[in-house]
Description:
Number of helices: 0
Largest sheet: 6 strands, mixed
Helix content: under 10%
Structural class: mainly beta
Mean pLDDT: 80
Number of strands: 22
Number of domains: 3
Order of helices and strands: EEEEEEEEEEEEEEEEEEEEEE
Strand order of the largest sheet: 1-2-3-4-5-8
Strand content: 35-45%
Radius of gyration: 31 Å
Amino acid sequence: MAVFSGNGSNTAPSFTFSSDTDTGMFRRADNELAFTVEGATRHVLTSEGRTLLGSDNTSRQTYTWVNGVPSAFNPGAQISNAAWQDSSLSLINWQNGTEVQPSIILSKSLSNTIGTHTALSNGAQVGVIAFNGSDGTKFGLSGVIDVEAAGAFGTNDTPGRMRFYTTPATTSTPVVRLELASQGSIGMPNVDADFRLLVQATTGTNRAIRSNGLINTRTPSGGGSTALQHLVSFGSGVLTGDTGVSINQGSFGGAMLLLATRNTGSGTLTDCALYLMQMYYDGNNAPAVTYLGGDGDFVTFGVSGTNTVTVSISGSGNFQIGGLTMLPAQF
């Protein structure tokens, strides 16, 4: 038996309820099925198989990240409303057990046949989370989180790398800022297999790392070697107006190799001075500083307050000071 009806509309659906005639189902367009509540269309199933939820029933073009290029598309499912609360998605799990939780799962097979598996090749994208913002005429990418295969996949062998992108000003193309490799290495912006953490400056005017004080990294209680070696840039500026640099020597001592540079004018060779700084355990005394060599001892060291080493450079022109530091193991 077949039941036929007219197309209906959002205010007078074809299939409805005797006590609620503006709620029900109707044919919105050719090969489209729509559901209306209180005379407003809330859910549309399109001929392409897309699901449109909310008061905005038009499939909207957005952008995702495909093999390093922004790519426009109309998503298979869309929630679109005027209020941000009505455009949000919540997953809630009610179940006794600490091992269960609501999940968001992105899955990928290289097979063109639904339900069959083809292993991913090296570099194949596994999933993308794309952040879109309106530029006044259309949506554009502001940031991306991307996971791709970090090698050819095989049985129980699915290595992946994760990259984080942000879009710089005056462009709409995201740039990779942080990469997490399959072996656990971290790179900013990219990983080098020889380093656990690699931070690279992207231009000649950018410093790779800047620290206003020592990184207080400790060896776990009970053993281990020295805590951390790291290169830092403590300060730079114009000597005539910005000669003071402060270094936090911490409360557990340590040692530091400091390199200071000074350029006194156009066409002059940069002066360099290398120092060894040995700090006290309590950090409340001026450190012992040894001038190791260079183009002259032009840096003055002192202590200010608790744990703060003051650094002043004599002369005129531009200066920069940085160092390789080592903190002792703490028990």
